[in-house]
Amino acid sequence: TIQGTNLTLRFLPPVDLEDMGDLTYWGIGVQHNPTVWMNTLLKIVIPLELCLSFSTQKMEVGDIITASSWNFGLNASKSFGAKFLNIAPYAGLLVEGAKLEFDYEYEYTISDENSDTGYTSKVEDIHFEMESANKARLVLGIAARLGVFDLSFDYNISEVNSYSAGLGLGFTF
């Protein structure tokens, strides 16, 4: 983190999936904690950590599948305890979207008594698009640092509700 800003880059080198084409994936995200400059420049002390965020990512499988997503968010948290042993409840509000496109040409043969070979080749275009049901969500959660272990659990309230849990390994200096 530099001056309250964190940049995240995600990238997967292309993976050859033979007949399907290459699998490619990339993503970028940026988070900023405005309390860094609010405390310093404006002398406004806010008892919470705030985070403004944006992220987007895209995955493609040849010309067959394209999946993409994005989100904008505002998050707030408060840590209690020391750097190496603490808990931090958090909440966030996100506006988001995701889209999946599938485009495939299916080739098959059927029996055909009228053809010279006894069968006929057919090609069928299969195409569909889906957009995420979620347009916004409220996240309520808690994180804990236990030495080098980071634990988290959150509940996402939206059109499609979900739970999320995490276990990480981290070092704080």
Summarize the structure.
The chain has one helix spanning 35-40; strands at residues 5-16, 22-32, 49-61, 65-77, 80-82, 85-111, 119-131, 136-146, 149-157, 162-169. By secondary structure, the protein is mainly beta.
Give a description of the structure:
The protein has 173 residues and is mainly beta. The protein is built from 1 helix and 10 strands. Strands 1, 2, 3, 4, 5, 6, 7, 8, 9 and 10 form a 10-stranded antiparallel β-sheet that branches. A hairpin with a 3-residue loop joins β3 and β4. The longest helix has 6 residues. The radius of gyration is 24 Å and the shape is elongated. The model has no long low-confidence stretch (mean pLDDT 92).
Major sheet attributes: 10 strands, antiparallel
User: Count of DSSP E strands?
Assistant: 10
Classify the secondary structure makeup into a structural class: mainly beta
**Helix-strand sequence:** EEHEEEEEEEE
Beta-strand portion reads: over 45%
Ends apart, CA distance between termini: 13 Å
Runs with pLDDT <50, length 5+? none
Helix content estimate? under 10%
Over the alpha carbons, how many angstroms does the gyration radius reach?
24 Å
Helical stretch count?
A: 1
Instruction: Describe the global form.
Output: elongated
Mean pLDDT: 92
Question: What's the SSE blueprint?
Answer:
Layout: E1 5-16, E2 22-32, H1 35-40, E3 49-61, E4 65-77, E5 80-82, E6 85-111, E7 119-131, E8 136-146, E9 149-157, E10 162-169
Antiparallel strand pairs: 1-2, 2-3, 3-4, 4-6, 5-6, 6-7, 6-8, 8-9, 9-10
